[in-house]
């Protein structure tokens, strides 16, 4: 593992109570369009913080302002105790950035990518030779050190992008959709690397469309839509606040789902044992939100209704996300 232990030392030695990132009434406009509309949030040093939202919600714009590559229209922001607009180079020196699309040099070897990137920070070559080996070991890429980047799998390229971003031992790591396009196995390997960084004291800030990823990685998150914050809290806290403990998925057939929803509401609404909340009608199924989904299913069977399929599952962050931001695609 790399001396990502270094951030932990910094964090423990730093007696300042200031957060890693703090934004107050942060706003970004492009002409008449408001991409980020007066949002306020803070990120504690050493935590994993998520920005969730549909496309166009303002996540990437917020990340660009944190990374000191986009100026804010109004509001205040501090990153590692510095104003990105006033001290952009110093802020960028403390950050590691993982873009949504890998921007590796395909013609260089795996080790050369890390060394060349480190030179941008003015790090000496002697230091980088040892650091590259350390980072490749952390990313489980030592056996590919001399391989050309174009020969790597998607998961390997992603791990190399993260390893490269750690060459300057950043205090804060910004990750934009870190596992997009990866298969489940590669995603879990990447999660393991990120967990290790978090445990070492590195602050993680990520955007993701994978709700299970947000539940796994984030200590706390905000749900953003149309440039504003819709909700904030831990994944478990948001589920408790905006959903029920369980969800019952029922399929009666696409021509019957909608017509049976009102009938089911009457059956379940008179029974407190199920902890019924509401029903959501989808084209292919009904989602019954209840504290005790098994009890709700028993009541439905007792009323003589026989769904084609039924599934009881725990409520997830995806249920919260869709309830807050809607299920329709709006371009």
Topology:
Blueprint: H1 5-13, E1 21-30, E2 33-43, E3 48-52, H2 59-66, E4 74-79, H3 88-93, E5 95-98, H4 110-120, H5 125-138, H6 154-165, E6 172-176, H7 184-199, E7 203-207, H8 211-217, E8 220-225, E9 228-233, H9 235-242, E10 246-251, H10 257-269, E11 276-281, E12 286-290, H11 293-302, E13 309-314, H12 317-325
Parallel strand pairs: 3-7, 3-8, 5-6, 6-7
Antiparallel strand pairs: 1-2, 1-4, 8-9, 10-12, 10-13, 11-12
Number of helices: 12
* The number of domains: 2
Distance between the termini: 42 Å
The strand line-up of the biggest sheet is 5-6-7-3-8-9
**Helix residue percentage:** 25-40%
- Average pLDDT across residues? 90
Q: What is the CATH architecture term of the largest domain?
A: 3-Layer(aba) Sandwich
Largest sheet: 6 strands, mixed
Sheet/helix structural class? alpha/beta
Q: What string, H for helix and E for strand, traces the elements in order? A: HEEEHEHEHHHEHEHEEHEHEEHEH
Number of strands: 13
Q: Identify the overall geometry.
A: elongated
